[in-house]
Amino acid sequence: MMIESCYERFVKCMVLPVHEPSIALQLAQVGALSASRWSERLRPLGITPGEGVVLRVISASEHASQRELADSLGVAPSRVVALVDALEARHLVARTRSPEDRRRYRLALTDDGREVLAGLFAAGAAHEADIAGSLSSDERRQLSSLLSGLVDGLGLRPGIHPEVGR
What CA–CA distance (Å, rounded) separates 42 from 161? Predict the structure, then answer.
């Protein structure tokens, strides 16, 4: 009986044909390409993908507190403070004291923030067409449903870009 060396086993693994790529690999390939292209699309707007999510969430719940925003995003309040500070410095978000509770800040988009948000939605539509353009509308619906199942099954927050938590 001959014992294979680690190197010989490695070589065999490298030359064996792969008949069907794994789902995880395909998701990683598409995810990496999509994330890279999405960042490039947002560059002219002057925002990152994470900042885009924050703008979108603030627009959907005007006058939410920073704490409520942190809860919606599933991130630490200190992360939200840093994100809001950056957006406020660029005049995209306004932070005002709540009249009901002076310890609390309410968040709202500025006019500039609403303009960037409109650009974000346009970029999103173009990005979707670019990434899923080779699929029929039925295939897109099916893929979306399957991916939603994965998002739910993995305990991810739907609609929240992973960059937000970084």
Answer: 13
